[in-house]
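Worked problem 6 (solution included).
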Amino acid sequence: MYRLIGLILLGLAGWGLGALFSGGNSTRVLIWSLIGAAIGAIATPYPARAFQRWLNREMARVSSQTFVSAMVGVVAALVVSGLLSLPLSLLPGLAGKIAPAVAVLVLGYLGVSVMTAHSKTVAAIVDMRGTTPGAPGRQGAPQQPQDSPRAILDTSAIIDGRIADIARAGFAPGILVIPKFVLEELQYIADSSDSLRRQRGRRGLEMLQKLQKEAAVPVEISDTDYKDADGVDSKLVLMARATGYPVVTNDFGLNRVAELQGVRVLNINQLAVSVKPLILPGEEVEIRIIQEGKEFGQGIGFLDDGTMVVVEEGRRHLNSKVGVVVTRVLQTAVGRMIFAQLKDGSRDRGPRV
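Solution. The predicted structure is:
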């Protein structure tokens, strides 16, 4: 296809040059045309493919909203320049030949610039679902204005499932954007031959369906992709940098890489740690000792929020509920760890169930 296009275009260019420089000699015109066609057929595919790769890469960075706005600007520019072409062609001399082409270029540039600068307004006009009363939409999700904040969901955040509860509670950052390449990764995991990975993938698809049906925050599927990027994490970082949206994830590696590249990250694990109730040394709590600790005599229990409590001399109260006094609170990368000792009353009496 590229060779045919190059053959025709450069053949016509050769014919024009031959007619210009050959002094009316038809043989020379034919030779120029054949030379141009040969060069076009041989050389065109290489720059054409390079241009196509560049164009695909650049178009992947452009959101659908911006692309639609640019197309509206181009159409408007063509209409206006078409209306102006006749009066401009009546200008005397060379100006009458050049002015229509210049008008098309200038108006095209202005149309694209103006429309993309007001892309949100154009998208709202093109898609009236967000402003028309009674318009059909996803049940349970209120219509959001076009300029609502957005956040990109990572695969790990979808599989984790807590984002649905966060959204239902009204603490989501705004519209949740799920790139198509994240959906493809979820589908790939769900079709895995490994039973554990397959279960995780199917859980992610179920959580996504739950998020779309029940959550109070709209979910937006994005077709943006980055074919030249290696891996979903790289694509997420590129998309976040291009759009300015934060990334919602549980992946510690993605968290670090994104922060190093200036991308804002919303880590659900960090949120869970932040909202855990604060327990200070000296406070008294009741827990059930469910397993032995690493050190001799220690017992392990857990608070309602999942915080691990290491109880000195708690081993003899295994499978019993006891009162303890907090002695130390240790903050780790994975959460809080509490060290405690038995209350005097629990220390004196035997285990109770």
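Discussion: The radius of gyration is 33 Å.
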